[in-house]
Amino acid sequence: MDDPREFLEEAAAAEEPEVLGHMRAEMTRIRASLPAEGPPLGDVGKVPSAADFLKDKEPDDWLIDQFGMRGSLVVLGGATGASKSTLVYGMAQAISEGSVL
């Protein structure tokens, strides 16, 4: 059997005939809910090239140069006593005062 749909239908019919009926009804319901016009479901359209992406890219807004961008999440990890809190307090102070870290 080359068509996987045929295999699935035969397997469902052999095991539980009502399963095949439910599958067909659900597929009919899904097809009816899809728009008749437009791109096929799952079509992502034209994917831009890297050059196009970089051309339209806005400059980064760094709060801490090359470390924390505005609107991003930074995860800082380290061993106990590694001065993570001291570093973050210093960053917060520098950001609030507009000074250099």
How would you describe this structure to a colleague?
The protein has 101 residues and is mostly helical. The protein is 49% helix and 5% strand. Strands 1-2 form a two-stranded antiparallel sheet. The longest helix has 17 residues, at 17-33. The radius of gyration is 28 Å and the shape is elongated. It starts with a helix and ends with a helix. 0% of the residues are buried. The model has no long low-confidence stretch (mean pLDDT 80).
Summarize the structure.
This protein is 49% helix and 5% strand. It is mostly helical. Strand 1 (62-64) and strand 2 (68-69) form a beta hairpin.
The tally of strands reads: 2
Q: Looking at the structure, what is the overall shape?
A: elongated
Residue stretches low in confidence (pLDDT < 50, at least 5 long) are: none
Question: Taking Cα atoms only, what radius of gyration do you get, to the nearest Å?
Answer: 28 Å
> Strand percentage, roughly?
under 5%
Quickly count the helices: 4
State the secondary-structure class: mainly alpha
Distance between the termini: 68 Å
Helix and strand succession?
HHHEEH
Oligomer: single chain
Sheet of most strands = 2 strands, antiparallel
Average pLDDT value? 80
Enumerate the strands of the largest sheet in spatial order, edge to edge or round the barrel. Answer: 1-2
The helicity comes to 40-55%
